[in-house]
Amino acid sequence: MLNLTSLQTYISKKLGCFSFRIWFGQHNALEPVLTVGNEESLPLLPSLSDPASHYSFFCRNGNSYMNITLENQFQLVICLGDAAAAFTEYELDYVYLLCSDLCHQELNKSRDMELEKMIEGIRMLTSTLDLNELLQTIIRSAITVISAGDAGIFRLFDRQSSLLVPLALIGFDDSFARYKTKKGEAISGKVFADGIPRIYQSKQEMLRDYTNISEENIDYVKNEKKANALMSVPVSLGETRIGTLTILQFSKKRNFTNRDLQLLQGFASQVAIAIHNAKLYEETSLRLKQVTELSTKLEENNRLLQKRIHVHDTLTQLSLKNKGIKNLVNEINRILGMPVSYVDCLDNEIYTGPQSKNKISFAAISEMFENRQKAPMSVSWFNQDYFVYPITIGTVLLGCIIVTASHPLTPMDTITVEQSGSVLTLEIIKKFSITELYYKKTKEYFQQILDMQDREQIISKGRQFHFTFYSYTFVVLCEIPGLFEPYEVEAKIQRLIAKFDKELANISKLVFGDHNKVTLLISVNDIAEIEKAIHQMKAVIKEWESGDNHLLRGGIGTAYKEPEDIIKSNSEANKTVAFATNRNKFGLMRYEEISLNRFFLNQPIQEIEKYIEEILAPLRSDKIQNKDLEKTLMVYISSNKSAVESAKKLHIHINSLYQRLKKIEELLNLRFDDPEDMLKIQLACHLKNTFI
After folding, report:
1. CA nearest 165: which of 174, 153, 173, 157?
2. What is the distance between the alpha carbons of residues 354 and 251, in angstroms, rounded to a whole number?
3. Are 248 and 152 in contact (CB under 8 A)?
4. What distance, in Å, lies between the first and last C-alpha atoms of the chain?
5. Can you give the three-state secondary structure of 499-538, one letter per residue?
6. How far apart are the C-alpha atoms of 513 and 87, rounded to whole Å?
7. Rounded Cα–Cα distance for residues 147 and 253 (Å)
8. What pTM, to 2 d.p., does this model score?
9. Alpha-carbon span 458 to 563, nearest angstrom
């Protein structure tokens, strides 16, 4: 989309309060891109004559239009209403130059995108061997670069059947794969036969070349949805044509250009290389498989025996070199000779080896060890046998080694798994230490944000933590109560933070754990993103509570625009958690939800109890009737002074309720119809329900 800021500013300055509208696009495919002023007072785009050079003027129904011709068959039309006389010839030339500059900028962006997609296609040729995925990516890139197209197809010539067979499709259903054409049949057959690229800008042009249709395709051609335009080029390896690449237009309006055709030929070259690589890979894979099978039979027994003896030393060396859990698991797979996975219960990740096919879920593992001793066991899951070896610290389950057992484990296999568990335990403890150090540094930076002594330096420092300050910033504090075992707390905190990192990956955030608390600093662009982030956090917490069988409470501070106000948001988040703790509430709560209770958060509980006692003491005698009176008052106030609803809740006659209310007024020496007295009573009842 064109950046019309400079053009809009210049025209608005000249026209003042007058309205104007701008259309942009190729000839006969112009679309409105900017409207300034009263939209209803501006007309729709009238029919245009063929574009002239530079710019021209015309009038329709009392409105003046400036028709500007740009490069690559682009036009820009400005409706100036009846204010065209406000511009001098020099100023109109300046408007033309502004438009030309904007068009050049847009064309440069388009060229950059074309180059990027071409480079991406070349990179894909060396990064994947999945032919179908590669072809789909190339066609999708072609449609992106050639903006006039919205569907694409690559047909490969099958020499056995002498047919062009659809091999990769974008924008078609699967039934189109049955539409196979002969050499010289329809458009694709003609392009393949003579090797000449073709452009068709209308259905009429295409119908002229829809000839030589075979009997097998007649019904399909009659019933298929016809494209409005298309381009088709041959795909060749050297001098040999191997297929065709076609881009079609169904819904878009712009015409195909000769440059589009050149770009499509470039993508066709990428398709040819992909086909060539696939054939080479198939031949190489077959030879490699034969060599591997022969080598495996000769070395299998000797390799397993030698490597198992050195398992502990090998894994320890990897750990000392900080190779990480993934490489450790790969090495365990290699040593054991059976598919092995490691389930990390801290980060909710599964590390698998090349041959691992673990089907045991996190939920199944959690349930497996929930009510039993955390000891190695053999289990069957989906008709597959597994050997499960838990890794624990104290009573805390950190993870599991899972061996997909094709046969019962031998004593040597068991020793290999046990040694692997020992090394993985050390790796996890090391990970704990690194994580703790990161949390410490993050917390220090968070404290610097709260202090905000050097604003520019602190904002700049955020890049070190992948944190960017946007329009709105707020603090979220989550607390996990009732945990005392240090490693259990650390494990649950890490699982929660891992879920936050995964689900809030696209949100600018600072997150760290501290004992049994997790602090998040979140910065977003607008109010809608605040609501979205809170919704995502609630979903994460719900999932975490379900998986960890534990409840947490959290407070959300107000989102502020100024970084200096983050300290307020942090204070509000802490107050909200304190309030939730006092009320024994769980889940996320916003500071705004505390409402008027925020005025009492800093009040000592003794003062609140004293006030309640001063108001309600006359109702608290040893007589049963007086105990009923306090309950009656609480129900009456909570029912918004509705006598009917209160009597129903208390299961008494309404006349009995009136008698009790009169007695309450006498004992409290207060009247329900006096606003000041009523405020005292309502406040006492609210404080009793909230804080006592």
Report:
1. 157
2. 45
3. yes
4. 61
5. HHHHHCCCCEEEEEEECCEEEEEEEECCHHHHHHHHHHHH
6. 64
7. 10
8. 0.45
9. 10
Q: Are 514 and 490 in contact (CB under 8 A)?
A: no
**Cα 263 from Cα 268, distance rounded (Å):** 9
| 440-462 as b/e: b if 16+ CB within 10 A | eebeebbeebbeeeeeeebeeeb
Burial class of residue 1 (count of CB atoms within 10 Å of its CB; 0-12, 13-18, 19+): exposed
Instruction: Pick 74 or 465 by higher pLDDT.
Output: 465
Radius of gyration of the chain (CA): 37
Q: Which residue has the tokens 């990516």?
A: 137
Q: What is the DSSP letter of 148?
A: T
Percentage of the chain exceeding pLDDT 90: 16
302 to 279, 290, 308, 338: CA distances (angstroms): 35, 20, 10, 16
| Pick from 256, 235, 73, 224: nearest CA to 149 | 256
Whole-Å CA distances, 515 to 436, 478, 493, 582, 676: 10, 11, 8, 20, 47
Neighbours of 71 (CB within 10 A): 10
Q: Is residue 315 a contact partner of residue 417, using CB atoms and an 8 Å limit?
A: no
CA 297 to chain centre: 47
CB 326 within 8 A of CB 347: no
**Strand ordering across the sheet containing 553-556:** 508-514, 517-524, 472-479, 553-556, 587-590
Any alpha helices (H) in 50-147, and if so which ranges? 89-127, 131-145
Side by side, the strands of the sheet bearing 384-393 are: 349-352, 340-344, 396-404, 384-393, 377-381
Over the stretch 538-579, which tens digit does the pLDDT of each residue have?
999 998 888 778 889 999 999 999 889 999 999 989 988 888
- Paired tokens of 680: 């005292």
18 by Cβ neighbours in 10 Å (0-12 / 13-18 / 19+) ranks as: middle
pLDDT in tens, 443-494: 999 999 998 888 888 888 988 889 999 999 999 999 998 877 777 888 888 8
**DSSP code of residue 174:** G
State the amino acid at position 356 in one-letter form.
S
| Per-position b or e across 143-181, b if 16+ CB within 10 A of its CB | bebbebbbbbbbbbbeeeeebbbbbbbbbbeeeeeebbb
What span, in angstroms and rounded, lies between the C-alpha atoms of 388 and 358?
11
Q: Which two tokens stand for residue 497?
A: 């933070």
DSSP for 632-690? Answer: HHHHHHHTTT-HHHHHHHHTS-HHHHHHHHHHHHHHHT--TT-HHHHHHHHHHHHHHHH
How many angstroms separate the CA atoms of 684 and 162, rounded? Answer: 91
Q: Convert the pLDDT of each residue in 329-355 to its tens digit.
A: 888 888 888 888 888 877 778 888 776
